[in-house]
Design brief:
The protein is of the alpha/beta class. It has 2 domains: 277 residues, Rossmann fold, CATH 3.40.50.150; 84 residues, Orthogonal Bundle (Arc Repressor Mutant, subunit A), CATH 1.10.10. The protein contains 13 helices and 10 strands. The strands form 2 sheets. The chain has a 7-stranded mixed sheet, with helices on both faces. Strands 8-10-9 form a 3-stranded antiparallel sheet. Helix 1 packs antiparallel against helix 10 and helix 8 packs antiparallel against helix 9. The protein is globular. The two termini are 42 Å apart. The structure holds S-adenosylmethionine. The site of S-adenosylmethionine (SAM) has 18 residues, from strand 2 and helix 4. The site of S-adenosylmethionine has 18 residues, from strand 2 and helix 4.
């Protein structure tokens, strides 16, 4: 059992899902991103101690392991991969835990100050991945994210832990709505420093849309699950104005439980988006695998009811589509509910009956008809009906992250 108020005594069950997403994403991310030849930096902005008292890895040890792996790829550009760990309280313990790890540096101090120094640095030709995992929401000023985007780094990805229920609870208190809002972080006293105001909450949320969400909940027009969903939808809409692709997954113990928080991802790269959708779906599948009947409960909504995955694909291809674009549209619509691999499998199963698939090149190196669904190495067009005319679509060359 966790000691009340001590975050690092033991890793909570749901934190394992969050770590699984970070861990599994970083490996393919680093393998791809380093191919662009620019230095790559992973910034763990609320790094913590490095390890939990029960011996489990914290985010710094996960990141350090992935950086070490990346450096061992046989690739000319991977030597300049580094991780920086920003921590204001446990920097000394963290330093002890990551000593000897190649390419890792602890920056003792405040996230806010460090972000400002990233923003004022003239160095722009870098790939940055920011992992932002604070206790609560009060450090999550939205304008830091727009600042990072405006800095025009070579590439930029954000993975943010957003405590949506904690936010709504604090918002309800500030608006004096007197709502009962559960918050897993209650015992940790994260937000109670008396400094919050509705203006601060607007700055964190990137707008005041959350106030109307809470008022609707107060008027009983929506339940709390719907309020949480409406809040995250508003947040992603703001983030969509900065990044080409965004996605979030609720981190929870059971599919009918309230999310502990949301993991929010933003990128400008389709490959990163598709990879992250894969990892978020895996985490969601782990939640479902703990359910007695493996059913969707929280997300058992009208969008998903009564339609098969093939119906959902069909609905997206009024005209033939490149597989990659099709996957992006489906992920934007259904989020983490299905993995990109599920969609590809469903298309293959329906190939020749429900779906027509045209590939360029059409044959393999050995002269056989290609059955590839790999949009990185070939162009794959998906339509309905038995066959697509190549002239009916503009064939684009695949590009890499
Ligand atoms: C949720 S914990 C991070 C856990 C860590 N990501 C892990 O997986 O092990 C948040 C950490 O941020 C640190 N922290 C809180 N406010 C900070 C700030 N303004 N700047 C830097 N670190 C901060 C806390 O001391 C704490 O160690």
């Amino acid at each position: 059992m966790a000691i009340k108020g001590d975050f690092f005594s033991v890793k909570r069950e749901w934190s394992k899902l969050k770590d699984q997403i970070l861990d599994h994403y970083l490996s393919p991310y680093l393998a791809k991103i380093t191919m662009n030849g620019y230095p790559t930096r992973i910034a763990d902005c609320f790094a913590g101690k490095g390890a939990f008292d029960d011996g489990s890895e914290g985010s710094p040890l996960i990141i350090a392991r992935r950086v070490e792996d990346a450096k061992s790829f046989p690739h000319p550009h991977n030597s300049d991969v580094k991780a920086v760990f920003i921590e204001n309280k446990y920097a000394a313990e963290l330093q002890g835990n990551i000593a000897q790890k190649p390419g890792c540096e602890v920056i003792p101090g405040e996230y806010e100050t460090c972000v400002k120094s990233f923003l004022t640095s003239p160095i722009r030709d870098r790939n940055y991945f920011f992992y932002v995992d604070p206790y609560g929401v009060k450090s999550l000023d939205f304008h830091y994210f727009s600042g990072l985007r405006d800095a025009n780094f070579q590439t930029l990805e954000l993975l943010i832990n957003l405590n949506t229920t904690g936010f709504l609870r604090e918002g309800s208190r500030l608006l004096k709505l007197d709502l009962q809002v559960p918050d897993w972080a209650d015992d940790l006293d994260y937000e109670k420093d008396g400094l919050n105001t509705t203006d601060r909450m607007n700055e964190i949320a990137g707008g005041d849309y959350w106030q109307e969400v809470l008022k609707s909940y107060k008027r009983d027009e929506i339940d709390f699950h719907e309020a949480e969903e409406a809040f995250i939808a508003g947040y992603l809409q703001r983030l969509d104005q900065l990044f080409a692709f965004t996605i979030s997954v609720p981190i929870m113990e059971r599919s009918h439980h309230m999310p502990k928080y949301r993991l929010v991802f933003a990128t400008n790269h389709h490959s990163g988006f598709i990879l992250m959708a894969t990892e978020m779906n895996k985490a969601w599948q782990s939640v479902l695998s703990n359910e007695p009947d493996g059913q969707l409960t929280l997300f058992d909504d009208a969008t998903l009811k009564g339609t098969s995955i093939q119906d959902r694909i069909m609905a997206e291809i009024a005209s033939p589509s490149e597989l990659r674009e099709l996957l992006i549209r489906l992920i934007r619509k259904y989020g983490f509910y299905h993995s990109p691999a599920d969609y590809k499998r469903a298309i293959k199963e329906g190939e020749g009956t429900l779906f027509s698939v045209t590939r360029e090149p059409a044959t393999t190196k050995t002269g056989r008809l290609s059955t590839s669904m790999d949009y990185e190495t070939s162009t794959v067009l998906v339509g309905t009906g038995p066959r697509i005319s190549k002239k009916s679509v503009n064939m684009k060359q695949p590009d890499l992250l």
